[in-house]
């Protein structure tokens, strides 16, 4: 009798181990995020534009920052992308014939593989497609004991101080300037505090955009003035979560993409200098 009980106990123990192992191997899901941005200190200045037009454009820009994203994940991989609007593409801000589209590290399709230390992101530089193929960017997160409830999950606070470079490039068509006067980029360095709230209840080291590296899914992320908040999580849905690597565009590293952006900005400045007026561009930072 005792031998039979031991045999049954061993059988159920093995069965439980196999079932939990299979569950872990097949662990997958998706999360929906909403973004928002604080507009304090965010100004819009357009030459010849009325204050009313500038105010309307600022309001449109605020709405553009209110986007929806989806993160698909399993234990080692994830794909992050913006959910398209009803017109079939990302929204844009416009007023008085001026159209502004804002793109950053959260735009495009981003793929992260923690097992292979692989980072892929589709990006565009003046409508030219690129595929960033690089290693994952590691961050020294400071994990705290502070917690809060996000939906049905207990989230823990983590902080990362990110030192960033931004380039401000000014172009002018002032006829009084010498023809060989070239615009130079003004490089500024800022420290931006990134705050993440992650939950160990979802055991994947993934999060919005480029962010990862915490012992649980990041449910909320504040990157400077922009916040990404998870509004929905679905774990192990009936349909298999398909995680497809992005593949469109010329393969480049992060550094090579930055060089492409700088070259295009310089090219634009050369063309603009043949016209009238003055223009400033900021690359990088927030």
Helix/strand layout:
Blueprint (H helix, E strand, L loop, with lengths): L1 H24 L2 E10 L13 H14 L3 E7 L2 E6 L10 E3 L2 E3 L9 E4 L4 E8 L2 E8 L6 E9 L2 E20 L12 E15 L17 E7 L2 E10 L14 E3 L1 H19 L5 E7 L2
Parallel strand pairs: 8-14
Antiparallel strand pairs: 1-2, 1-13, 2-3, 3-6, 4-5, 6-7, 7-8, 9-10, 10-11, 10-15, 11-12, 12-13
List keywords for this structure.
single chain, 286 residues, alpha+beta, 13-stranded mixed sheet, two-stranded antiparallel sheet, 3 helices, 42% strand, disordered N terminus
**Topology as H/E string?**
HEHEEEEEEEEEEEEEHE
The helix content, as a percent range, equals 10-25%
Strand residue content: 35-45%
Main beta sheet, described? 13 strands, mixed
Question: What is the CA–CA distance across the termini?
Answer: 71 Å
Low-confidence stretches: 2-23, 87-104
Count of DSSP-assigned helices: 3
The total strand number stands at 15
Shape: globular
Radius of gyration equals 24 Å
Mean pLDDT: 77
The helix-and-strand class reads: alpha+beta
Q: Could you characterize the architecture of this molecule?
A:
With 286 residues, the chain is an alpha+beta fold. The protein is 20% helix and 42% strand. The chain is built from three helices and 15 strands. Strands 1, 2, 3, 6, 7, 8, 9, 10, 11, 12, 13, 14 and 15 form a 13-stranded mixed sheet that branches. A hairpin with a 2-residue loop joins strand 7 and strand 8 (128-135). The radius of gyration is 24 Å and the shape is globular. The termini are far apart. The model is unreliable at 2-23 and 87-104 (pLDDT under 50).
């Amino acid at each position: 009798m005792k031998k039979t009980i031991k045999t049954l106990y061993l059988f159920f123990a093995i069965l439980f181990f196999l079932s939990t192992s299979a569950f872990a191997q097949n662990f997958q899901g998706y999360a929906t995020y909403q973004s928002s941005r604080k507009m304090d200190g965010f100004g819009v200045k357009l030459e010849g534009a009325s204050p009313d037009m500038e105010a309307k454009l600022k309001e449109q820009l605020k709405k553009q920052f209110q986007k929806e994203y989806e993160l698909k994940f399993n234990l080692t991989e994830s794909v992050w992308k913006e959910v398209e609007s009803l017109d079939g593409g990302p929204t844009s801000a416009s007023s008085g014939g001026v159209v502004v589209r804002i793109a950053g590290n959260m735009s495009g399709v981003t793929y992260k593989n923690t097992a292979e230390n692989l980072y892929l992101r589709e990006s565009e530089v003046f409508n030219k497609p690129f595929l960033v193929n690089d290693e994952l960017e590691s961050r020294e997160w400071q994990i705290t004991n502070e917690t809060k409830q996000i939906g049905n999950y207990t989230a823990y606070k983590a902080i990362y101080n990110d030192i960033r470079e931004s380039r401000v490039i000014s172009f002018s068509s002032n006829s009084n300037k010498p023809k060989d006067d070239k615009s130079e980029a003004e490089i500024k360095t800022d420290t931006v505090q990134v705050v993440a709230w992650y939950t160990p209840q979802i055991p994947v080291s993934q999060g919005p955009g480029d962010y990862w590296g915490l012992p649980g899914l990041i449910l909320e992320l504040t990157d400077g003035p922009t916040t990404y908040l998870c509004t929905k999580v679905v774990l192990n849905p009936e349909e298999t979560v398909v995680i497809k690597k992005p593949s469109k565009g010329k393969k480049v590293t992060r550094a090579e993409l930055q060089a492409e952006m700088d070259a295009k900005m310089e090219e634009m400045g050369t063309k603009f200098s043949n016209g009238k007026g003055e223009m400033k561009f900021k690359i990088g930072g927030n």
